Amino acid sequence: MAKIHVQRRLRHNVDDLIAMVADVEKYPEFINLIPAVRIISRTQVSDNCEIFTADVAIKYKLIAESFRSEVNVDRDTKTLRIKRAGHGGAVKTLENIWKFIPLEDGSTSIDFFLNVQLKALPLELLIRKKFDKAATYIMNSFESRAKDIYPYVGAKDDHGKSRVG
Questions:
Q1: What is the reported pTM?
Q2: In total, how many domains does the chain have?
Q3: Within a domain: residue 154?
Q4: Is residue 119 within 8 Å of 91, Cβ to Cβ?
């Protein structure tokens, strides 16, 4: 199993960042490893919570795979949870959790956790060697996207403090 846990402060508003990460159909525009995403179904659970199922294509060099995932966007808890859904494909286990923590200066601390296990042992061994690099690339892609589409908030040198409440 390949796992990674990253914490990063971004100088962007928490609601903007949640909207950006939840907009999975735009991923192919800024993440080269994801050439296609297709929403299969979407359910609005409440004003601040939605669940949708998406087919995601992943491509790295000569390896191309797709898998179905379920995405739970909860704006009340400022959390996105992504897990593998359905059968088929190379992905055996997928757990991805994004927590967005608003900071006093208006910026956001992102707590990112990703756990992936593939069905085929050769692919699993290959992904383990490149997993940290791929996860860093993905986080950097999101950070660059946020810089391109959202204004900065908070002080450049202020690392902020978590808001209480």
A1: 0.88
A2: 1
A3: no
A4: yes
